[in-house]
Structure formats: structure tokens, C-alpha cells
UniProtKB/TrEMBL annotation:
This is YiaAB two helix domain-containing protein. PANTHER family: INNER MEMBRANE PROTEIN YIAA (PTHR37290:SF1), INNER MEMBRANE PROTEIN YIAA-RELATED (PTHR37290). One of its GO terms (biological process) is DNA damage response. Keywords: Membrane, Transmembrane, Transmembrane helix.
Length: 138
């Protein structure tokens, strides 16, 4: 792996910051929300499931691009999971009895969190790959 494929420290830091801000704001919103505990649990579960599904999808897509075997079943499940969690969030927010601005807040912090998680995972993999390549060069 060449140095060009290694993300800069600024990009790595910005990715981690975006992940922390997205997740933290989502969780603060849930903490302060005027909703039943079971509703808070629903939205918390969606965030955790969404983060896992997005990272898993990114990894399986990249594995396939690099020639690492990924079964079609797992690849399909990753796509189904991301679509399912996005759909569940959309349906939950559509039916929620909260202000439109609050719905938008949850949607945007959720999307930011998923995007940042994918970026952080990519950066971690790129840095690890660069470290392995550097070790082989020595």
C-alpha cells in the first residue's frame, strides 16, 4: 500500500470527531426526549444496529473489491440490514409525536453517525494496511 492510500491524521481525526458528535448528539437527544422508556430503547437499538450494519456493509463491499471472499448471503444480509434500519428509523420518526425539527435532528444525527462509522472503519483499515505494508518493506 502506498503512502497515497493512507489517510491523513486530519482526516482520521475529523472522522472520529464526526462519529463522536453524531452519536453523542443522538444520545443526548434521547436522554432529554419526552418519550416513554420503550421508545428510547427502540431508537437506541436502531442506532446500535445501524452502526454495526453500516460498518459491516462497508467491510464486505471493500473485501469484495480487494478479492477477499464474501458470501453472497452475508453481503445480501448487510444490504438488508442497512435498508431495514433506515426504514425502521423512517417509520418510527414518521409516526412519532414530536416536532418536525426534533425528527430532523434524530434523522441527521443518525445519518452522520452511520457515515462517520463507515469512514472511521475505512481509515482504521487503511492505516492498518499501511502499517503491514511498511513492515513488509523492511
Amino acid at each position: 500500500m502506498s503512502m497515497q492510500n493512507t489517510p491523513s491524521s486530519a482526516f482520521v481525526g475529523a472522522s472520529w470527531l464526526a462519529l463522536m458528535v453524531g452519536v453523542l448528539m443522538y444520545l443526548i437527544g434521547l436522554w432529554n426526549a419526552n418519550m416513554a422508556l420503550n421508545e428510547k430503547g427502540y431508537y437506541l437499538t436502531l442506532l446500535m444496529y445501524g452502526l454495526f450494519a453500516a460498518v459491516s456493509l462497508q467491510k464486505s463491499v471493500r473485501d469484495r473489491m480487494e478479492g477477499t471472499p464474501v458470501t453472497s448471503m452475508y453481503y445480501g444480509l448487510c444490504w438488508v440490514s442497512v435498508i431495514a434500519v433506515a426504514s425502521l428509523l423512517a417509520v418510527g420518526l414518521w409516526n412519532a409525536t414530536m416536532a418536525s425539527s426534533e425528527k430532523g435532528f434524530y434523522a441527521m444525527s443518525f445519518v452522520l453517525s452511520l457515515f462517520a462509522a463507515v469512514t472511521v472503519q475505512k481509515n482504521v483499515r487503511d492505516v492498518a494496511g499501511a502499517g503491514a505494508a511498511a513492515a513488509l518493506d523492511q
